[in-house]
Specification:
Blueprint: H1 9-12, H2 17-22, H3 28-39, E1 42-43, H4 44-51, H5 57-76, E2 80-83, E3 86-89, H6 91-105, H7 119-146, H8 190-193, H9 196-205, E4 211-212, H10 213-220, H11 224-236, E5 240-242, E6 247-250, H12 252-259, H13 262-286
Antiparallel strand pairs: 1-3, 2-3, 4-6, 5-6
Helix pairs in contact: 3-4, 3-5
């Protein structure tokens, strides 16, 4: 039997999300199990234990529920192999991984660089753009806070009178009351913002794609402070994450949620709603 494929800890740290996707490993739990098998092939249960050693709470429970199917799926895709009770990297996957790492070490890119531009210049420019974006966001937030809030009795813009009969001119009309809440202008309370319906829609929209902040804003009917609050809260709980380009995708906890079905998902989402509301209320109390 061939010797198991091994990789050292320094080399495995080279693997980022993009490199993992190039070798066909996309889910967070998949990365954990494959990484453990690469660093130390062994008995399947022992490899799984090492892979999940840093998980806790809901993540650990999701792991226990999905590890058997996860291992079976990785073996079917020829990423891992189970031979004589030893879980290790499949030879096909090992060859693909070696090639990807070799390309990465040799700075091989699928995009031809601009002549005369060095990697250091690109990194510096990217860092400058990130700092500029952060500055713009901070300035925008300060401007929003500085805007005076309308007080009771303050002047309101007059509605243009419609051309109706003379008897209606000067008549006092009572304002029409409506229960509809414009979530694009109103600052929602934690109870209004974090609902099971909105979180399920968020998970469904990001299940198999990445959306820009503007796209997500229109689909969730949220904008401004409400959307920022939602993304910040779900980001802290590792449900979503926002890239520097303002693209939103599911983080590891969000990916595990969309994989649950029926009653399990309903209960998990309800627990998440409760957790988000409690966290938001605690933040408001501290302020």
């Amino acid at each position: 039997m061939a010797e198991p494929y091994l990789i050292d800890t320094v080399r495995i740290k080279t693997m980022n999300d993009q490199l993992w996707r190039r070798v066909g490993v996309t889910q967070s739990f998949e990365i954990l199990l494959v990484e453990a098998a690469l660093l130390g092939p062994g008995i399947a249960s022992e490899v799984a234990r090492r892979a999940s050693s840093k998980l806790s709470g809901g993540a650990a429970r999701f792991w226990d529920l999905s590890i058997a199917q996860l291992q079976k799926d990785l073996c079917r895709r020829r990423i891992l192999s189970l031979s004589d009770g030893t879980l290790q990297a499949h030879t096909d996957f090992a060859e693909k991984l070696d090639k990807v790492l070799a390309d990465h070490d040799g700075a091989v890119s699928r995009v031809m660089p601009t002549p005369g531009v060095t990697t250091e210049q690109v990194l510096k420019e990217a860092e400058a753009q990130a700092k500029a974006a952060a500055t713009r966001k901070t300035t925008s937030n300060k401007a929003k806070k500085a805007e005076p809030k309308p007080t009771r009795g303050s002047a309101r813009p007059l509605k243009r009178q419609s051309q109706t009969s003379e008897s209606s001119v000067g008549a006092n009309h009572a304002p029409v009351k409506t229960k509809h809440v414009d979530t694009r202008r109103t600052i929602l309370t934690p109870k209004q913002l974090f609902t099971s319906n909105r979180l399920n829609r968020l998970l469904d929209y990001l299940d198999d794609t990445t959306l820009s902040v503007n796209q997500l804003s229109s689909r969730l009917d949220l904008s401004g402070g409400n959307l920022d609050a939602l993304l910040e809260a779900t980001g802290e709980l590792q449900i979503t994450r926002v890239s520097r380009d303002r693209l939103v995708e599911l983080h590891w906890r969000g990916r595990e949620l969309v994989r649950t079905v029926s009653v399990d998902r309903r209960l998990a989402v309800l627990d998440l709603v409760k957790e988000l509301r409690e966290k938001a209320n605690a933040s408001v109390s501290e302020e």
